[in-house]
Design brief:
Elements: H1 2-14, E1 19-24, H2 27-37, E2 42-48, H3 59-65, E3 75-78, E4 83-86, H4 91-95, H5 101-109, E5 114-115, H6 127-130, E6 134-139, H7 147-156, E7 161-165, H8 171-174, H9 176-186
Parallel strand pairs: 1-2, 2-6, 6-7
Antiparallel strand pairs: 3-4, 4-5
Helix pairs in contact: 1-2
């Protein structure tokens, strides 16, 4: 988690002015940790069907609270090798439920393994993180980070602006125009 946060903060710092950052899925954890490192780098954080933590959360514990998530059906974990990956044979209805077959094939061809270790990292957030305005884009058909967990996180954390898309976990593939409109609306 620390490495992810440092990479995000370094990318934001390279722009040389505060940025609006958007994170998807588990990327919400790294973005939150980056804002904790240096809140002056960000004008706003936008969470897109993403984990929006409170201090002490871990990806693994947030995921475990999401009882209706189907992510486990479409992922493979190799604890010995230390990675998690999406199973392309099962990804379609769970990750890309409202995408065309062509877009699902493209997404599956571009899947990569992710390190498992960050999922166990505990995030510590203070007033530094709290100082950065936050927005959330809900995806009501999401089967990975379900709308139930999204609503719980929005309710438990302060988000000044919220938009809703009737989409799966991947609106950047299924409805990029409407996603762009939602980003503008919550910016």
């Amino acid at each position: 988690m620390r490495d992810q946060a440092q990479a995000i903060a370094a990318s934001a710092a390279a722009i040389r002015r505060p940025v609006l950052a958007l994170a998807h899925s588990t990327g919400g954890m790294g973005m939150s940790a980056a804002a904790e490192l240096d809140p002056t780098l960000f004008t706003r954080l936008i969470y897109l069907a993403a984990y929006l933590p409170v201090s002490g959360d871990r990806v693994i514990t947030l995921g475990a609270r999401d009882k209706t998530s189907r992510v486990g059906e479409a992922t493979r974990t190799s604890a010995l090798r230390g990675f998690i990956s999406v199973n392309p044979e099962k990804s379609g209805p769970i990750f890309y439920g409202d995408c065309s077959a062509d877009k699902i094939a493209w997404a599956n061809a571009n899947l990569v393994k992710e390190p498992l270790r960050p999922a166990f990292g505990k995030i510590i957030l203070t007033d530094r993180f709290a100082a950065v305005p936050r927005s959330y884009i809900r995806c009501t058909q999401d089967q990975v980070v379900t709308s139930i967990l999204q609503d719980e996180m929005i309710g438990a954390r302060s988000c000044s602006k919220v938009a809703t898309l009737a989409s799966s976990h991947s609106p950047f593939l299924s409805m990029p125009g409407r996603l762009a409109d939602a980003i503008l609306a919550v910016s």
